[in-house]
Amino acid sequence: MKLLKRFCLMLACCALGFAMMDCGSISPKKAVETPSKGKEWIVQLPGLKEGEKPLIMLRIPAGTFQMGSPESEEGHEENESPVHSVTISRDFYLGKYEITQAQWMAVMQENPSTEYGPNLPVNRVNWYDCQDFLRRLNEIVNDGKFRLPTEAEREYACRAGTEEMTYFGGDPTDELIEEHAWMRTNSEGELHEVGLLKPNPWGLHDMLGNVWEWCEDWYAPYQAQAQVDPQGALLGTEKVFRGASWMARPEWIRCADRGKFTPDNRRNTGGFRAASSD
Predict the structure, then answer these.
(1) Which CATH class is domain 37-277?
(2) Which residues contact 69 (CB under 8 A, 6 or more apart)?
(3) Which residues of 84-102 are buried (b: 16+ CB within 10 A; e: fewer)?
């Protein structure tokens, strides 16, 4: 009887050993890789409802452009000189639209805007508010790397490979401007839903008009020498605003136009769009 029990025990041990050997021969599961973002990256935000525009990021290709405007350009201002060569050395992502109120609410749970609508751009946010939103967005989205665009990235993306005063021509008619930009002649003094007007050649909407957009940089005068991936001044008192707004005069609806405000300034005409490092 004892011999039989020992024999059964040996069989059980052998069976367990073979099972462990078999399990050990199975390759462990590989971690799921993040899929390629591609040319268009749709960021999943919690709580967006049907009909509310998603956060869509478009891939902006690296390249070189002439930043600023010549004195001969209609509407030119002194702070847009000298024209200088700028290279954006790496692809990056930029929001197809300005950040909307629904997108803001999905991250921040409260709406600071002066007019309300889920697909209206969020407004009355200062530079620090934008940084808080982007920090929280990076906590929600793995490998997001969200940030504000630099001033150079913003002008480069606005121009979208064009070289004239606007991305829709060098001497546009009022009618043509109003097909691309909300400003004081067509906005009726109100914010407008993002994406209603024609985009630039790279598919970005409202790069001129609707709301001014914060950039990462401290404001500083331009330098004449060629630059690669400029980050703006190290220190300053004002941050760069770009793109003009629904209250803009026609001469401000230009790719090179520059604005500046203190970073704690909340304006009815001010909003932003997100950028992301590749």
Answers:
(1) alpha beta
(2) 76, 77, 80, 81, 83, 165, 254, 256
(3) bebbbeeebbbbbbbbbbb
Contacts of 246 (CB under 8 A, 6+ apart): 182, 183, 184, 187, 189, 190, 191, 192, 209, 210, 211, 269
Q: pLDDT per position in the chain (278 positions), as tens?
A: 433 444 344 444 434 343 333 333 323 222 223 345 789 999 999 999 999 999 999 999 999 999 999 999 999 999 999 999 999 999 999 999 999 999 999 999 999 999 999 999 999 999 999 999 999 999 999 888 999 999 999 999 999 999 999 999 999 999 999 999 999 999 999 999 999 999 999 999 999 999 999 999 999 999 999 999 999 999 999 999 999 999 999 999 999 999 999 999 999 999 999 999 97
CA dist 194 → 37, 121, 206, 226 (Å)? 23, 6, 7, 34
Beta bridge partners of 26: none
Closest CA to 214 of 125, 142, 141: 125
Using CA atoms, how far apart are residues 259 and 252, in angstroms rounded to an integer?
A: 10
Q: Which residues pair with 58 in a beta bridge?
A: 40, 94
Angstrom distance (rounded) from CA 22 to CA 102: 53
